[in-house]
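Workshop exercise sheet. Pairs work together: one partner reads the sequence aloud, the other fills in the structure field after running the prediction. Swap roles for the next sheet.
Pair: D.N. / O.F.
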Amino acid sequence: MSQTKLETIAENLSAEISNAVKAKRMKVKTLLKHFNYEKRSEESATRITDLLAERGVVIQPSIMKMGDEWKLKLDDQVYLLANKELSIDDLMDAKVISLDNNRNQWFAKLPGRNFRNEKEVESKFLIPLLNYLGYTEDDRFDGMPVSGAEGSKKTKLFIDFALFNNSDEALNEQVLLIAEAKCHMLLDKTNDLSTAMKQATSYALHSSCSFGIITDAKLIKVMRFSFKKEHREPIFECSIDDLQEKFDTLYNLISKDNLSRYYKRLQQ
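Structure field:
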């Protein structure tokens, strides 16, 4: 099918979704047939995802191939969502997080600590931080590949950490948060920061994820993605020196509990 016809289908579907009172649900195989694809492939999944995202429609969970196999079966249901700007404050229960001794000790050791490479940023800073945000080892997909295509050429993106809620069937295969580690102090450089943010936006688009955290273990930046735009300014940022003081705010933005609540509300 020509690109023009595919764009027309996407325009009509996005208009229908934008005018709907409730989120639209359909089976994966129905969505493929809607775009006249007989079979699911990296190319068809990428084209449908991109065409709808360009028009402000997000597919949740993602229909892309994540990992070595298709996570969603053809009979599984997905939500087609207009890119809502839900208020985070209205959806998330603000709470003060009581810090245990281990966490206090971890925070106390952070200022001035040196991380020698990206792997150390991951293992010694980002993974413990994700744990404190409520994500268990089972919720975390390390180095998650997302298979796609540019035309007939297959592509593969690798997300440092994709975070799920594996204890909640209602959020089956929905990526709650993507987390990216960078070399220590890399984000101080404007060009490197811009590249990191664009990269995270691409990862978020193809995993149908609305939030991301990027850190070089000196700066922490949280993004909320809107796929009609390349990227936005961070909705939260702080230095590692201020993390203990600002942890409550970070928790209320991207903890497992609060993001689970956020994505469920999107589906209503």
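Discussion prompt: The longest helix spans residues 190-207. What would you look at next?
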